[in-house]
Amino acid sequence: MFDTVIANGLVVTSGDSVRCDVGITDGKIAGLGIGLVGRETIDATGKWIMPGGIDAHVHIAQPQGEGIVMADDFESATRSAALGGTTTVLPFCLQERGVPMRETLTAYHARARDNCYVDVSFHLIICEPTEQLLGQDLPALVEDGYTSFKIFMTYDDLKLNDREILDVMTAARETGALVMVHAENHDAIRYLTEKLEKSGHTAPRYHATSRPVVAEREATHRAISLAELVDVPVMIVHVSNREAMEQIRWAQQKGLKILGETCTQYLTLTAGDLDGLGMEGAKYVCSPPPRDAASQEACWEGLRTGVFSVFSSDHCPFRYEDEHGKLTPRGRTSFRWVPNGIPGVGARLPVFFTEAIHGGRLTPEQFVALTATNPAKTYGLYPRKGTIAVGSDADIVIWDPDREVSLTHAMLRDGADYTPYEGRELRGWPVMTIVRGRKVAQDGEIIAPKGHGVYLERNRSPFASRAERSD
Ligand code: DUC
Ligand code: ZN
Ligand code: ZN
């Protein structure tokens, strides 16, 4: 007798789709079979039972520049995640200059504790790679389950130069951590930004002009080259176009361990979305910027052919009608001051489901691999997370594969005041989200208490772990 049985559904994993029941006991998947019996039965006739989504790239309550505030805290971001079928999120803990990383982490944990509806685990962002951090603190942090960190090749206050990147990559190699790279050429962007501003081109649409494909392609190639030099795997995050995708494919074909991620906005938005009247375009300002229809097709090609193994939202929410958000007074003077990032943690799976499955671009198994299984594997959470197998956490999303929904921001319940995907006609909707055996969201309502989500210490990525290497 199981605690709960999900009966009569189609169980879809990254490997197979099988008609069977799922038995859950003590928050774990305890049996798969026909005719299972539980104290509670959830009838999933006509539904698809998938591993809960893992969004491996989100920003929550991340401190911003002066006067700017991120729209989500842990409560609102994880609420939206749960409603959108996501059961684990991986936000970033941003290093503060001159402050020990542990201290910053303690503050992040305090913000997350007792506030989450879904499970959470932190990546680090390294913007000041001191000897103390790389030599002393990081090895201990990696041991403690902070097994991935992001570095930036752009932004005045975050970017690392090539030497610093080499040092971080070396520390990652020594500790078995996975480096995630934001690849855009900072000097090229600065050069173009200054030129645009001088000629009076300051509206949000020029954000896209200032960050062209060539700046992303060059930095992607450079990050790959530096990783080759150090002999370390890296994940190139939020890839937006064909040229950057082809750099990654070239590296993979050469035998380098280069991984790639793309996001909802690069499949569904274009630079044209930044063209709105007045400041409307600010709603779509994110980096890299959305490109064009051909770039969208290239990103689909990357997903279909395995160049990209992870599909994320890069949820980075700011309110639009807010002087601490997209309508910051400085942003009206130039696109360069518009807060960078868009919301998407709740919309990620339903938008992707519609486009991938009903658009005939991916199989249901590929959908699961990209949204749950591969993120779990890549970031050291597998097999606890990311699959439906006996012994795994019972993190499950039940889909009505044919439900038609006109998406509105009100359905997503994040802390922003808009969604870039407003009005999209979707087909396929997550009708129930279960986290460690407990129903958290059902039919658009949250039904578990805040605080059900727990913090997850992660193993090293199998792609990065020292055990994988011969030396
Ligand atoms: N990079 C991200 O990963 N998220 C938001 C902004 C950015 O530049
Ligand atoms: Zn980034
Ligand atoms: Zn991001």
TrEMBL record:
One annotated Gene Ontology cellular component of this protein: cytosol
GO molecular function, one term: metal ion binding
Alphabetized SUPFAM superfamilies for the sequence: Composite domain of metallo-dependent hydrolases, Metallo-dependent hydrolases
Cofactor list: Zn(2+)
Modified residues (N6-carboxylysine): K150
UniProt keywords, alphabetically: Hydrolase, Metal-binding, Phosphoprotein
Maturation and modification: Carbamylation allows a single lysine to coordinate two divalent metal cations.
Any Pfam family matching the protein: Amidohydro_1
Domain Amidohydrolase-related: 48-440
UniProt record similarity statement: Belongs to the metallo-dependent hydrolases superfamily. Hydantoinase/dihydropyrimidinase family.
Function description: Catalyzes the stereospecific hydrolysis of the cyclic amide bond of D-hydantoin derivatives.
Protein name: D-hydantoinase
Organism: Paenirhodobacter populi
Gene: hydA
